[in-house]
């Protein structure tokens, strides 16, 4: 698997183009996914995604795929699961300080990003921390829901203005308030 992961980084440009086309198709199929129901699709998509991305990238199914921003090198393969660059312990030969036989995920990511279309701006984007609540879920379906603003990504209805309190009847302010406990009998 490690050899396939390195192959994927070496072919980041082609894989990124494929992924961009694949994403357009999956998003365009939103009416079909919506008719079937996203909840019903979650399990089959998880199996398909885990199989393909697991083979190509050693995907850890974080649910928030960043491969197109990290040169097709999955940051979740970093022993420290760092999502925003190397830890600073990269060895002089570019290998990981924790696993000396493994290339640093971020050194590989930078090399993959250089091979991809465009420039190195996407790898410089700050990735948000992993939301463990969606770990194991399909990132592909999540992208569709985000793009089409479905489910939890649907726009929230505007908040209604707070209801006005009814006016207090005349003289209600003059009603004596009960004495506070312990307030009686104290000398002033």
Descriptive report:
- With 188 residues, the protein is an all-alpha fold.
- The chain is 39% helix and 0% strand.
- It is built from six helices and no strands.
- The termini are far apart.
- Mean pLDDT is 88; it is low at 180-188.
H-E order: HHHHHH
| Largest sheet, strands/sense/barrel | none
Number of helices: 6
Average pLDDT across residues?
88
Report the structural category.
mainly alpha
Gyration radius (Cα, Å) is 27 Å
Strand content: under 5%
Contiguous low-pLDDT stretches (5 residues minimum) are: 180-188
Sum up the overall morphology in one term: globular
Helix content bin: 25-40%
Number of strands: 0
Q: Main attributes?
A:
188 residues; mainly alpha; globular
Topology overview:
Layout: H1 2-10, H2 12-28, H3 30-36, H4 38-57, H5 105-115, H6 139-148
Helix pairs in contact: 1-5
What would you say about this model in short?
With 188 residues, the protein is mainly α. Helices cover 39% and strands 0% of the residues. It is globular and about 85 Å long.
């Amino acid at each position: 698997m490690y050899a396939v992961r390195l192959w994927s980084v070496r072919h980041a440009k082609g894989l990124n183009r494929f992924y961009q086309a694949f994403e357009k198709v999956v998003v365009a199929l939103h009416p079909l996914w919506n008719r079937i129901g996203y909840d019903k699709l979650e399990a089959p998509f998880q199996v398909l995604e885990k199989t393909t991305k697991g083979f190509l990238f050693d995907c850890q199914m974080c649910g928030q795929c960043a491969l197109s921003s990290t040169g097709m090198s999955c940051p979740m393969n970093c022993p420290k699961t760092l999502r925003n660059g190397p830890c600073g312990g990269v060895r002089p030969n570019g290998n990981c300080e924790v696993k000396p036989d493994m290339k640093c995920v971020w050194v590989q990511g930078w090399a993959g990003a250089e091979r991809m279309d465009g420039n190195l701006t996407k790898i410089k984007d700050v990735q948000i921390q992993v939301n463990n609540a969606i770990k194991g879920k399909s990132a592909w379906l999540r992208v569709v829901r985000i793009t089409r603003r479905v489910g939890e990504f649907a726009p929230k209805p505007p908040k209604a203005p707070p209801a006005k309190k009814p006016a207090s009847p005349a003289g209600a302010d003059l009603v004596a308030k009960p004495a506070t406990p312990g307030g009686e009998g104290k000398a002033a």
